[in-house]
Amino acid sequence: MKTVYVGMSGGVDSSVSALLLREQGYHVVGVYMKNWSKDLPGMKCPWAEDLADAKRVAVKLGIDFQVWDFEEAYREKVVEYMLNEFKNGNTPNPDIMCNQEIKFKLFYEKAMEMGADYIATGHYARIIDGKLARAVDENKDQTYFLYRISDGALKHTLFPIGEMKKPDVKKLAKEKGLHNAYKKESMGVCFVGEVGMKDFLKEYIDIKPGEIREVESEKVLGYHEGAVFYTIGQRHGLYLSGEKGAVNDGMPYYVVKKDLKNNVVYVSKNLNDENLWTDELKLKDILLRQLEHGFLGDGSLAPVVTGLAPSSSVVTSACPQKASSQLPAKRLLVRLRHRAPLIPARFDGETLHFENKIKRPASGQSAVFYDDEICLGGGIIA
Amino acid sequence: MLKFLAFLFLGVLCYNIFMIYLDHAAATPVSEKVFEAMKPYFSDDFFNPSAAYLPAKKIASDYENAKAVIAHAIGAKASDLIITAGATEANNLAFTATNGEILYLETEHDSVRRVAEKYGGKIIRVLPSGLIDLKDLKSKITDKTELISVSLVNNELGTIQPLAEVAGIIREVKLDRMKRGIKTGLLLHSDASQALNLLDINVSRLGIDLLTLNAAKVYGPKGVGALYVSHDARLKPLTYGGGQENGLRSGTENVPGVIGFAKAVELAKKHLNANRKKYTEWKKTLLSELKDYELINKKHALDNFIVLCYNGIDAERLVFLLEEKEVYVATGAACAASKGVRSHVLKAIGLTDEQIAGSLRITFGETNDEEQIHEAAKIINDVVKTERARITACS
């Protein structure tokens, strides 16, 4: 009998994953990863309730259940990274880092040490021919958060609900009497779940108030609590109306630029402001998953030729694959936010080029690459 | 069938009669008589006791009479009681009596521990029996000690503490201080939340200066408690306003709550001896019918408290398995379980981590009958057997 260690968060997705694995005849061990337990002022971290929910399901399924404490590592690898990114004016995605460093690294490694054949999670994703692939439920696909997980971990990973649609997952949970079928969806990171990132950052980053200026006129329109709270393109929370100098015509202002050095946030009413739009994105920390895919000289995806040995490294514009050039190039698709539509792009090895201008995503977020349903990796927007 | 018929007729009026609720130390249902007594004060008799007109004066008088009933039950006067929104608040209020050194028992409830910690309190150890280590207490009292907090009944083990002996030690210390011309007073606070139901409490006989009471554990409403305050104790208010409750707890009086509390206390007193006898019998029955366990609170426990340990088993799993059969029990303390931390009480009496993990708390009460006790023993035995079989199959 093969052994699977399944990460159980107390939510319906991981609960149903454990249920399915058990029904498929695996020896299943449920594990609650304790990543964060600290309460914040005015907000109770729900970890203990989540743990109890996960355990209740494990008991109902008659499987072993353990709690693994990753708080120290989570703090070091995820929270510190996140805080540093914010301090540098970026908008990081802690869930991507959590998958890369905790769930598909520490959890995976420990499970293998304990004798697991596989690990499993309740992510909406699939593995097709050993490759990370988008979930059947396009609405819930979570490959955006998984694009950085290691090939080693992926080889030993099962995504039991990747072939299911969310409503069916919930229905199954109800049929099987799993109480958390009715549980409110968690927001991933427990400490941002209910208070929001701003309250979290206030606790951990030394912030100081500064000016909000109109980008066109340099006029001071108001004041902000701390530049790190603002993301380019954001329109909420500026509290400008009524400030001296602000023309309160009911039109919203958008954050278009941040000057961290002088702690100034620049805003504009002009939705066409050049800072808000771009037709190219430079990436850093690029991680490409499927090595048999290369990129052609024009930045489009090289086709895969069967029978040809996979190239040993990523082919960039400088070195297109000869054999491939005879087949029509494929379209590279990019996702810039979880659940955002896939948009065609070309990639030259460090920069993404788009046919039309797109709304500029925040730096620190990820651009994730797809060849149809296969996730090819991606990079972090510089 | 009988149960089904009863459900048809009574089901809408009361709690689920199919369940076997064995967690009365966590919460008790408001009894029907208590509920009936409270009802008029939500609507017909809603007046603010502080208002000048006659109907309001009647409410003020009903309220004072209700307080007197509660006070008399512990050998005190209505004016000695400060009504609070529960035992936690009463415990917090008690600690305003001093700025000096505090000693508290290591097995206290969090509503004492956390406050005592905040005031820099020092711990008094317990013996493996769960009783206070009187030698440790004596050795820790200094000339600056002003408050000692020892619960009357421990909420996880049901251990009844020898408060009169503690009070005796305190009397000696006070006498010695007087002889040496030291003016510092020394107060005894006791959280009696779990005790009011089954113990005859008399504050002067026990030598208690501050006593916490809780309506929710005696079939009264939740969110109602009281602090008895002797004339030696000088408290500072935690809330300011209209000056109700001797200026120590401002806010319009919770009239229905206190009426309910008084009724609950009255009923508890009335049935105290019969209940103790009944629970003692049930305890014997359950302990003889259950299999393969270790009894943790062998001595000095309240009649309705049983703490068992199933070695090698995770008791929390048992709680979830029993829950499916509508049998409700606790692991350690109900609140400790939800925080995922090991019980500080079970640790204090020297249990190993494995023993703590395997510990179940069963507390009887008025929702139970003898038939349920037999039924519960059967179900618990079954569930333990199932769990043991699962563990064997895994390894």
Structure, briefly:
Chain A is α/β, with parallel strands linked by helices and 382 residues long. Chain A has nine helices and 17 strands. Chain A is globular and about 70 Å long.
* N-to-C CA distance of chain B: 43 Å
Strand-residue fraction of chain B? 5-15%
Give the termini distance of chain A in whole angstroms.
46 Å
The computed structural class of chain B is alpha/beta
* Class from helix and strand fractions of chain A: alpha/beta
Quote the beta fraction of chain A. 25-35%
Mean pLDDT across every amino acid position of chain A: 85
Radius of gyration of chain A: 23 Å
- According to CATH, the fold-level topology of the largest domain in chain B is Aspartate Aminotransferase, domain 2
> In the CATH classification, which architecture of the largest domain in chain A applies?
3-Layer(aba) Sandwich
Order of helices and strands of chain A: EHEHEHHEEEHHEHHHEEEEEEEEEE
Q: Give the count of helical stretches of chain A.
A: 9
Q: What oligomerization state is this entry in?
A: heterodimer
Q: How many discrete domains of chain A?
A: 3
Indicate the mean pLDDT of chain B: 93
Largest β sheet strand count, sense and barrel closure of chain A: 6 strands, antiparallel, barrel
Protein described:
The complex is a heterodimer of chains A (382) and B (395). Chain A has helices at 12-23, 47-61, 71-87, 94-113, 143-146, 151-155, 166-175, 190-193, 197-204; strands at 3-7, 27-34, 64-69, 118-120, 125-128, 131-134, 157-158, 210-214, 220-224, 254-259, 264-268, 277-288, 332-335, 343-347, 351-359, 366-371, 374-381. Chain A has 382 residues and is of the alpha/beta class. Chain A has three domains: 3-198, Rossmann fold (3-Layer(aba) Sandwich), CATH 3.40.50; 207-271, Adenine nucleotide alpha hydrolases-like domains (SH3 type barrels, Roll); 276-381, Translation factors (Elongation Factor Tu (Ef-tu), domain 3), CATH 2.40.30.10. In chain A, strands 12-15-14-13-16-17 form a six-stranded antiparallel beta barrel. Chain A has a five-stranded parallel β-sheet with strand order 3-2-1-4-7, with helices on both faces. In chain A, helix 2 (47-61) links the parallel strand 2 (27-34) and strand 3. The longest helix of chain A is centred in the N-terminal third of the chain and has 20 residues, at 94-113. The relative contact order of chain A is 0.12. With 395 residues, chain B is of the alpha/beta class. Chain B folds into two domains: 2-30 and 272-394, Alpha-Beta Complex (Aspartate Aminotransferase, domain 1); 33-266, Aspartate Aminotransferase, domain 2 (3-Layer(aba) Sandwich), CATH 3.40.640. Chain B is 42% helix and 12% strand. In chain B, the strands form three sheets. Chain B has a seven-stranded mixed β-sheet with strand order 2-8-7-6-5-3-4, with helices on both faces. Chain B has a three-stranded antiparallel β-sheet with strand order 9-10-12. Chain B has a two-stranded parallel sheet with strand order 1-11. The relative contact order of chain B is 0.15.
